[in-house]
Records
---
Amino acid sequence: MKAPGRELVIVLPEGKQHNMVTEKQTLWLHELLNNVETLENYILAVEVVNLHRGGLTNNPIRLEFALRRKVLGPFEFILHKN
């Protein structure tokens, strides 16, 4: 597993220090974020709109190709489905 590139801030009530519970919840949150941030899950949540071709693409192979390019073409947009 790669090292996370994020910092987590956990706010606890004063006077309550449950180190074991906090550590367990932090590990759970780290695993959850690693699962959500995978390319496969991101591809399920987005679609590509190409206004030149007049189409909307949610084909996983084309989405992965579009996401791996450094620059999208003119009038080509990545939209979230939500």
---
Amino acid sequence: AKRDREINMRAQMMEARQNMKDLYDLWSVLDVHQQRSLTRDKFREQMRSLEVKKEFSKFKLDVTDIDAFFNLMDAEQTGEVDVEEFIVGCMRVRGMSNEVDTGITIQETKLLAQRMHKTLKTIQKQSGDFQSELQHLSGRLVIVEA
């Protein structure tokens, strides 16, 4: 039993190494200008290629929502993905559609919370400005009545 586990673990490690090599090769296809990073726009552009789509499908990676997939790879939220983020991101989401859906939901929830916080700050500022203006006008109204 122990020997079977070791053989199984060794096979999994070899498969993981091969997947990493294959993903590195895919990265080479994506990074045509060899800039060592890929922006969201460049990723979108590359995803139009039938060759690239075929390569992603080999890994059972569903990239129907390109922006959401990019966000999952862009762990540091820099707007760019380097080869390491690309490989780790692809390995993380490979064949795990439920986890991808969860990751997308979490990402979208975070972005929504950030937008709501920003909107609330704007409303609070406008409310303060409005109150100041009302106080100013009521002070002028008292002067006019006197």
